[in-house]
């Protein structure tokens, strides 16, 4: 970022002098009034111009006429005047009509603006009332809860036996509570049983001084003299007369004991009043027993609340008549355990008037707020109306007394629910029938009238005045004026279109009028400043005109720069963590899909929050508040925006993972926010644009780069502003200092997400680590254990892992389904019908059985697989594959098959289903880069109707055959099924049965093919197989492709590697021009094999972080096997560094070069080769350090006899659960094929080896 070059051109924008910000995106623009005023002034100037022109031209005409008076006749003079009169009349009519129309439009627009201001003000006030009322209710409930905990703790510390406990400092605690919350009365009533009644009555009389505020003897052993003015027994009121409670009930009792404010005089008569004698309190007490938390009552009149009589002589009254109350009851528990008994109750009384008072701040008459608030009870039918005028609140009366003409503007919110009845169901479960208390807010006529301004009438008068001026000016020369107006209008529209696409509205206004003075020229709303700005923006450079940018002929250099200093702003930088590594694995369309989706969601939040989006740079999002409209709440608005963006980001990425593939949901967002002065303006020149400058911008960028994954780091300045806005619970200090370039060590804070901030408010926790203990932050591409930050975590780790696995299965299934749709679309275009019946179906079934009996897939490897010829007619007739409906059965069976395959994968660190998904994604990327038949068709001869076969053979027929593409994707999904985490050499020693079955050659790969093929042959997947292939030819080619592809992943078999090298040399030693059809098929076969080979190790040819991630997984797998004695070779850590260099030099880089040399994969081959070379160079520098870190990490884990990590534990549990379900589902298949297995001893041995418990996954224990 740069500082402005000319500080003298900066205008400091004082927020005190600025207009208030727009309340919402839907409200009228604040500069509408300025625009209208500018238009009026412009019209006045235009009128003056025409008057002068008319006067000048009229004078010339008069002179000419006077000179030729003798030469003209009376008839000519009369004709001229008639023409002039007719012309003037037409102009007069047009001007008058225009004035009437314009005046009417402006009157309607101005009236609409007044109405919009009224509506916006009402909605803002009602939203504020709802928010404060809810906050007050929550605060009062939390205060009662804390006080109940204090009483429980005090009784425990005093070792008091319930109910004989009195809290000595209750008055102090209650006083703070009553001052902070709108409450009028607080009662503490213990729960007294019949057995303790006499003891309690004696205790209450002896200790009444503790509750009446009287002095207590210093010696606790001295008895307290009894007070005769409290009831010596527990009582209730009957017709305003206290009566002993024993006449009505044998307990339990809940006598009032301690009252706040402390009762005096007659007020002492409420002590020992049994609250359980009142039906409302009994219902509330029963509700607290069920909910074990605070509950509220229905709407009550003060004289009805708790049945306390309201004698005039009694000064202790809950509230004045006509001021409805509500009661909140909080249970007091014996201890702090969840099953602790209820030993008493705290009751708090709140009047609705106090709840609604002091919410709306008073102000000037322009912002008058006058509302009717109706509190209603849904069950009792009671309702009360309050009148709010600014900060004053008065009780208006019983019922809904609002103005009915504002019924459509009603703002409504549910305030609370309460228990009305308690019923017992037949099963014994207690059910609470709840009712609600809601608040409805309506505006008043007085408030509406306060927003009626004189602006509409003023506009109308102004337009009429201008119309008179224009009528005088438009008497002559209308043609020339109209032409000039048309020219200026065209230029204005062009200029507006350019500026509107580049700059904010306020900056655009300055470009059109920097000096603020309208020049007296032109017919449109164009001034000289605007014309100069446009000319300077579009002005040619010195290379074009020969005049230098610093030359005197360049007007733009001499103009005043468009730049402002905004002293109160908040800047946000948001960067996607892991994006570079993630994007290296995908094609550009997927990258832009992610960025567009994420940033579009951010833009929507910015529009809703009124945050100004500056620009996006790569995967970084820059936004600011406080400009171009200065506002005082810029920091809190940006805090809300950042929290919304973080929450939306995780929602979007998890949603996109099912379409963009693996690891999309693991992307993180790193956010930095700083507040301070910002210089903003237009940096003119080539593609000039609106930009931000200054130290605030630089610091915000540094906070983002030094932040943490899925965290919002804010500066000390921003944190202070957030606290001043009453949101102190939103921020938490960072434990360590942050070192920023040019700033030194900075104290920063974390901005808590919504869930963590709400938890802090409810619990009142002050522990600085209470919200971050479950969050572990890493760098880009690193692992992450998410907690309360970044996203909500309501499920266990196993459930999260299963959800992620489900998304992978869904993505793989959708990728295969899309490929299947291509197969069906091509099949339908070529009029080839599926062979469900007849001889073709029988031949397919026989071939399936024959392939199932063959357990040695090496014998099926083909040097040349015949590709179908390209059919231009079928391709031209093919419909969009997305419109193909495969049917519910096929789609369901494919998804179930992918689930079965996923369950067959072992939970290895490297050879697992996640890696298979990564390979599948690489296959899709490379297939998308192959030259498509669309480009071939573009070169077709329209007369012959054929396609040049040379152009088609350039792709070797790979993209011409959807079945080939599906087979390659299918192979990528199954290629590591049941991989045991060791090499083929060690697997032969570990499992001799499998070694015998597969002749000790490519054992793991053949085992994967065999298991996956057996699963595909399950009768439950009959419809899926019929969709993949319809005859024996397609089945045979599908099987050959799968076998060749999967066995090609065995890159360490020297014999197979040599055969593939010879086939490559044989295929590509012949030029495409001299190649036969068989040579083309050979090229296609070897390219397909190298395609899956490159995809299997694609992590080595992608971003460094992707490479290190999978390299670590592979090291963990090999090192674990070695320490467990399953790897017969030497310690892999000793040769890992040099082995990787050898692997790059002798396999990866040559493979990348082959992809490039075959000329099929376009720019992807260059991308893969460049990444391979860079990763090789980086490994040579840092490889030894990386290996050391690997050894230390996994050596310690295995020493403790722990699995590699919690994710592996969860994955193991998920895969085991899925495997059990899959085995249960395929049980019928196993029984149906038992007859065939009896004829196949090797098959029986293979099945036995696959289910043998001693060859389970290395880390499953």
UniProtKB/TrEMBL annotation:
Coiled coil ranges (UniProt) are none
What would be one Gene Ontology cellular-component term for the protein? plasma membrane
Identify the keywords attached in UniProt to this record, alphabetized.
Lyase, Membrane, Nucleotide-binding, Receptor, Transmembrane, Transmembrane helix
TM stretches of this protein: 90-110, 457-475
A GO molecular function assigned to this protein is: 3',5'-cyclic-nucleotide phosphodiesterase activity
In this chain, composition skew of type Polar residues spans: 1-10, 52-74, 1203-1214, 1244-1255
GO BP field: intracellular signal transduction; receptor guanylyl cyclase signaling pathway
Q: Where in the cell is it found?
A: Membrane
Q: Where is the PDEase domain?
A: 797-1051
Describe the location of the Guanylate cyclase domain by residue ranges. Answer: 570-704
Q: Which InterPro entries match?
A: A/G_cyclase, Cyclic_nucleotide_synthase, Nucleotide_cyclase, PDEase_catalytic_dom, PDEase_catalytic_dom_sf
Q: Where is the composition biased (Low complexity)?
A: 36-47, 763-778, 1226-1236
**Pfam families with a match to the protein in the record:** Guanylate_cyc, PDEase_I
Q: Which SUPFAM superfamilies match?
A: HD-domain/PDEase-like (SSF109604), Nucleotide cyclase (SSF55073)
Query: Which residues does the annotated region (Disordered) include?
Result: 1-74, 763-797, 1198-1261
Q: Which PANTHER family match?
A: GUANYLATE CYCLASE, GUANYLYL CYCLASE
**What protein name is recorded for this chain?**
Receptor-type guanylate cyclase gcy
The organism encoding this protein is Seminavis robusta
